[in-house]
């Protein structure tokens, strides 16, 4: 069955005899490496479809605005009419899996988690939806109190040494009307941000997470690029120091790399009394506070 380029159809593939990718042909057997590469490129370009009919056509009913491929070998496509389709990569081509009427307005962002198990979509309808890619199911629908822009997963499995259980569903969502980027826990089902990142002076148009460095690269409407850490605002431990509380009522801070003492805090009552009597005015107690301390 032939399908025209502008025609509508169900998400199935059709074949005909028009030009299209083929397994036959390739680079010549002999010749230098450069000539073989050049012949391969020319052959690939020659086999690109350039006719009114395609060999294979994977259809949406409106303009396709977003396409991404997950690490789990699934393809997600989103169109201007708010439709989302999942496809499975096969040895040849892709196979339709499931169709969602995800949003009432065009998509603003579409992002897959680093491990390929989750997918998030944002739209001008102020909706944020989260999908389980492997189960082909929508698992969260969050109504936001702002108009979202692009989104990006900024943690979780597949995020390298910077991954942790609490960050698996951490999602960065840009505000389409301000320079702010909000960090949300997509698993909670709530639109209240855990933190708001304010490093830009114009609305953010692109967000990309680097699993190798645990950092986010963002670009705004003025062409400014920013690097920032998704974990830094929460004060998560960096693992460079550790503290020990001992029976001598002292707290010692050690460097993990060298094992040397970086600082010692004396929490004994004698030390505190000395600080209150001889230290700065900020540490001195009023007479009423001193009486309360002795009575206790």
On the 0 to 100 scale, the average pLDDT is 78
Output the number of helix runs.
3
Strand content: 35-45%
- The domain tally reads 3
Radius of gyration based on Cα positions: 29 Å
* CATH homology superfamily name of the largest domain: YVTN repeat-like/Quinoprotein amine dehydrogenase
C-alpha termini separation: 89 Å
Class derived from helix and strand content:
mainly beta
What is the strand arrangement across the widest sheet? 1-2-3-4
From the structure above, extract its key features.
mainly beta; 36% strand; elongated; 3 domains; 11% helix; 296 residues; Methylamine Dehydrogenase, Chain H; 4-stranded antiparallel beta sheet; disordered C terminus
Describe the model:
- This protein has 296 residues and is mostly beta strands.
- It has 3 domains: 1-59, no CATH class; 60-234, Methylamine Dehydrogenase, Chain H (7 Propeller), CATH 2.130.10.10; 241-295, no CATH class.
- It contains 3 helices and 18 strands.
- It has helices at 33-46, 269-278, 287-295, and strands at residues 64-69, 74-79, 83-89, 94-101, 107-112, 118-123, 127-132, 137-143, 148-153, 170-175, 181-185, 195-197, 204-210, 215-220, 225-229, 241-245, 250-255, 261-266.
- Strands 1-2-3-4 form a 4-stranded antiparallel beta sheet, with no helix packed on it.
- Strand 10 (170-175) and strand 11 (181-185) form a beta hairpin.
- Residues 1-29, 157-166 and 287-296 have low confidence and may be disordered.
């Amino acid at each position: 069955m032939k399908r025209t380029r502008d025609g509508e159809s169900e998400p199935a593939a059709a074949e005909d005899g028009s030009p299209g990718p083929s397994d036959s042909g390739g680079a010549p057997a002999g010749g230098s490496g450069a000539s073989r590469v050049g012949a391969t490129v020319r052959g690939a370009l020659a086999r690109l479809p350039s006719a009114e009919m395609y060999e294979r056509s994977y259809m949406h009913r409106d303009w396709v605005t977003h396409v991404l491929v997950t690490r789990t070998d699934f393809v997600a496509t989103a169109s201007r009419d708010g439709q989302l389709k999942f496809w499975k990569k096969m040895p040849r081509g892709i196979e339709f899996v499931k169709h969602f009427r995800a949003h009432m307005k065009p998509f603003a962002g579409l992002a897959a988690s680093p491990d390929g198990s989750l997918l998030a979509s944002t739209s001008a309808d102020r909706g944020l939806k989260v999908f389980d890619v492997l189960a082909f199911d929508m698992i969260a629908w969050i109504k936001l109190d702002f108009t979202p822009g692009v989104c990006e997963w900024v943690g979780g499995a597949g995020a390298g040494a910077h991954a942790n259980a609490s960050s698996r569903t951490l999602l960065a969502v840009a505000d389409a009307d301000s320079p702010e980027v909000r960090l949300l826990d997509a698993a909670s089902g709530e639109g209240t941000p855990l933190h708001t990142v304010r490093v830009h002076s114009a609305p953010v148009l692109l967000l990309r997470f680097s699993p190798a460095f645990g950092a986010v690269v963002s670009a705004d409407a003025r062409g400014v690029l920013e690097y920032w850490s998704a974990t830094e605002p929460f004060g998560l431990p960096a693992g460079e120091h550790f503290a020990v509380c001992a029976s001598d009522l002292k707290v010692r801070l050690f460097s993990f790399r060298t094992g040397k003492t970086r600082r010692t805090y004396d929490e004994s009552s004698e030390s505190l009394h000395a600080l209150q009597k001889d230290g700065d005015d900020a540490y001195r107690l009023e007479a009423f506070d001193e009486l309360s301390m002795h009575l206790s």
